[in-house]
Amino acid sequence: MIRLGLTGSIGMGKSTTAAMFRDAGVPVWDADAAVHRLYAPGGAAVGPMRAAFPQAVTDHVDRAALRARIAQDPAALPRIEAIVHPLVAADRAAFAPPGDLAVFDIPLLFENGTEGAFDATLLVTAPPALQRARVLARPHMTPDHFAAMMARQMPDADKRARATHIIETLDLDATRAQVHALIAYHRSLPHA
Questions:
Q1: 20-65 per-position pLDDT tens digit
Q2: Domains in the chain with CATH codes
Q3: Residues whose CB is less than 8 angstroms from the CB of residue 2 and which lie 6 or more positions away in sequence, other chains included
Q4: What does pTM read for this prediction?
Q5: What are the start-end ranges of the E strands in 64-191?
Q6: Residue 64 and residue 124: Cα distance in Å, rounded?
Q7: Which of 36, 97, 114, 159 could make a disulfide contact with 27, Cβ separation 3.0–4.6 Å?
């Protein structure tokens, strides 16, 4: 099976592109969905997070409370990551769908240095003005929050230099056509 790591900064169209792979019948593992499962009642992160950040946990981990904690104490972020990243990695390792191709939707693929776990990587990208407009159109998003998120992400130019494949998400039809072409390409490889 070919394991394709899908990434892109906030507002670049990663979730939309992942949905296009799903619509084409390609299994997709989603890092954000894994975190939601881990933070939900009974999730594997609830106990360890309660021990470290009791004010942010009831029967589930409250993401808004964690964001507030990080805003007050930036040193909390590495502590949160030390708890959550191994759990997310275990969830990803357990994902073994049938078939010849699987996509792994990982927002911080390059930032976390996990690209080596994949046969190829796909970066979705868009011009900065379009990215900013998409992000600021989201509910509860502010320019300051957007700037803080961007500060934690690798610059798009650096991601472009590291990616195996790049799709610019300017238009839904063109993006979908590129997704289908990429699926066909990977399925045509001798090891597919």
A1: 999 999 999 999 999 999 999 999 999 999 999 999 999 999 999 9
A2: 1-27+101-192 (3.40.50.300), 41-96 (no CATH)
A3: 100, 101, 102, 119, 120, 186, 189, 191, 192
A4: 0.88
A5: 101-105, 120-125, 165-168
A6: 27
A7: 97
